Amino acid sequence: MTLTLVNIWKIENHTPHFGLTALAAFLQKRIPNLDIKIIEGLDPLKDIIKTKPDIVSFTSDTLAFQKTKNIAIKIKKKLKIPILIGGVHITAMPESFSFPFDVGSIGEGEITLSQLIESFLKNKKFIPSELKKIDGLIFKENKKIIKTSPRKLIKNIDELPFPAREITPMEDTYLKNQFNLFGVKRQISIMTSRGCPYHCVFCGSPVQWGTVRFHSPEYVIKEIKFLVKNYNIDSIMFWDDLFIAPIERLEKLKDLIIKNKLNKKLVFFGYARANLITEDVCKVLAKMNTKRLIFGLESGSPRILNYLKQNSVTVKDNKRAVDLCRKYGITSSSGYIVGTPGETIEDLQCTYDLMKHHPLDNTQIYILTPYPGTKIWIEAKKKKLVSGNMDFDKLFVQLPPISFFDFFKTQKNLINKRIFLNTKYRNNKDYMKLVLKIQKLAYIQNIIFYIKIIPQNLDLIKRLIFNKIKCL
């Protein structure tokens, strides 16, 4: 039997989908005779059909959901096979479940999907009475939607096998023509944990992963050594929400990296949180050979920051994190958010001032965007700004990049066809001018950063020219 796992890109990705490779690895271990294919792309219909699948299972976030559904309809009409749906969107919004999907997987998918496939292999089809015995499912029986009991989380994630990257086109796609920094040529992303202990109003991580769970340092080192041996990599990107926590785990990870001399072979990058950045943490990261941390600083306004991060971080934390990273030679990158409900021009000016006086090496500006399952989605839904049958393309979080020629403009339509929650200021010219001013400042700081590292990566100048010197 052939199971084809599919991820439809809304925008091109440069690392294989973690969820699909994790599912494939678990299924390979539990159902050895199952032939698993992983297909990713912007329009992979032909590639999916070429695999001659017996079942197709899609994963999808909200932004790509309608596109995923459209391709699933075409497959259903052409192949007439069962089609499954999983991922963060259907987990956060199970009411989206409808034709052409036969069964949906809600929550963490390894055990759910394996039981689902075992049921199909046993019965040669999906039988409602059997599906009801499997936790974490949604399906139809006699036109009625059935939801089974919630799937319990996997407690010890060290029991899971490494993601099945070997069934993806690593050399031809993911390790080829990477846009990397610091002379890195071959980088692979890993996840050392699932979930995040914090609950920012805009974040869907609690919906996707539930309670935070960590891999042991020993598990992480074993995976890193496996990747070095099999893919000859020179860099690791820690893709999880918070690889630096807890500090005891980070210190043990550092010790194992040094013991295995991986700090001499690899450059490390990862996501972090400003309130957790201390002198001790930076010392550990520097010894690991960490060259870049990515934060969500979000706002320079204490009032807006408290709302976005639910009083878990302060502007003082943000400033300290940027300054400490610079002290220890760690590049700091971040995103700032505009468009928070109630954000005034004065609040926005605070963000501009923070960017100017505590400059990051690389900055992206985002619109506060409500995704299903987040706190801000609930608030936006109450205001009737979003709904389950809306055009999800409007939920694109990043502001359009500006180019050099935008510096000659005083205004630019940055929120065209986007959901903008700060409705009071949507048409305020002074507010929007300041948003553009923030974009321009980010552009300048980014270009300065790229110029600094060009000697370490000559390919970067080619990319900048190819992109017409856009704010990448």
Walk me through what this model shows.
This protein is of the alpha/beta class. It folds into 2 domains: 146 residues, Cobalamin-binding domain (Rossmann fold, 3-Layer(aba) Sandwich); 290 residues, Alpha-Beta Horseshoe (pyruvate-formate lyase- activating enzyme), CATH 3.80.30. Helices cover 38% and strands 16% of the residues. It contains 17 helices and 15 strands. The protein has a 7-stranded mixed beta sheet with strand order 2-1-3-4-5-6-7, with helices on both faces. Strands 8-11-12-13-14-15 form a 6-stranded parallel beta sheet. It has a two-stranded antiparallel ribbon with strand order 9-10.
The number of strands is 15
Low-confidence stretches: none
CATH superfamily of the largest domain: tm_1862 like domain
Strand line-up in the sheet with most strands: 2-1-3-4-5-6-7
Residue share in β-strands: 15-25%
Secondary-structure-based class equals alpha/beta
Biggest sheet overview: 7 strands, mixed
Given this structure, which CATH class of the largest domain is correct? Alpha Beta
- What is the typical, i.e. mean, pLDDT? 93
Count of discrete domains:
2
What is the 3D form? Answer: globular
- How many helical stretches? 17
Helix proportion: 25-40%
The separation of the N and C termini measures 43 Å
Output the radius of gyration: 23 Å
CATH topology of the largest domain: pyruvate-formate lyase- activating enzyme
